[in-house]
């Protein structure tokens, strides 16, 4: 809301943003026709991207990276989500039919849909294969010194994390408390990944428990006591 008010009262308009989609970057520039009340709405951006990427608009999810937040309100402005000129948005195509088997000429060729447990395992394995703790730790411990290379790797890691978080959200675990806990643990793990790469990208150290202070060592010299005269 405050971002939109700033634009209404003469604040700088968002003229372009950078969109990460399918591991590529796109510079999206806005024209006068794209503005509503001096701002670009999330719905307008979603329609623009769906047209450019040739995907159904209802299957396109948008996220801001800092802080990680889903852009779900189509009537809100980009400023309402904290975006500024040149800011970054991650677009994720939600493939709802990914698990559906292709039509087969014979019933024997059909494949049974994955169970919720199998879906969770598949997401976990995909993250380990594409991302893995080694790649995360490499970025955290030694991010690229070059700012552009560091930002590119950060955006790529963020997109992978977001895509798989969405896949977890689409798994139906309503019938099992154990599966709900397993999905929650995976989501928390992905959130920790994102917090760690955020800290590394900004040059901060991930929070850790402070080590206890060492006990003071006794000094070698002895203090002389003054004898009091009675």
UniProtKB/TrEMBL annotation:
Pfam families assigned to the protein according to its UniProt record, in alphabetical order: BAG
SMART domains in the cross-refs: BAG
Region (Disordered): 197-230
Residue spans of biased composition, Basic residues class: 220-230
Example of a GO MF term: protein-folding chaperone binding
Domain spans labelled BAG: 119-201
Annotated InterPro entries: BAG_dom_sf, BAG_domain, Ubiquitin-like_domsf
Name of the protein in its database record: BAG family molecular chaperone regulator 1A
Species: Wickerhamiella sorbophila
């Amino acid at each position: 809301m405050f971002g939109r008010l700033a634009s209404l009262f003469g604040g700088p308009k968002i003229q372009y943003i950078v969109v990460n989609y399918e591991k590529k970057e796109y510079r999206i520039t806005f024209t006068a026709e794209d503005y509503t009340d001096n701002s670009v709405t999330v719905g307008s951006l979603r329609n623009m991207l769906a047209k450019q990427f040739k995907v159904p608009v209802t299957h396109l999810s948008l996220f801001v990276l800092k802080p990680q937040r889903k852009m779900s309100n189509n009537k809100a402005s980009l400023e309402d989500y904290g975006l500024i000129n040149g800011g970054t948005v991650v677009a994720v195509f939600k493939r709802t039919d990914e698990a559906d088997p292709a039509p087969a000429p014979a019933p024997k060729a059909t494949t049974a849909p994955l169970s919720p447990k199998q879906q969770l395992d598949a997401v976990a394995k995909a993250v380990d294969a594409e991302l893995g703790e080694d790649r995360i730790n490499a970025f955290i411990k030694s991010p690229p010194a070059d700012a552009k290379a560091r930002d590119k790797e950060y955006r790529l890691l963020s997109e992978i994390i977001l895509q798989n978080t969405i896949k977890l959200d689409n798994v139906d675990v309503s019938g099992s408390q154990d599966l709900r806990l397993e999905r929650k643990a995976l989501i928390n793990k992905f959130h920790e990944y994102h917090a760690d790469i955020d800290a590394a990208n900004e040059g901060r150290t991930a929070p850790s428990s402070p080590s206890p202070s060492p006990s003071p060592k006794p000094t070698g010299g002895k203090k002389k006591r003054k004898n009091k005269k009675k």
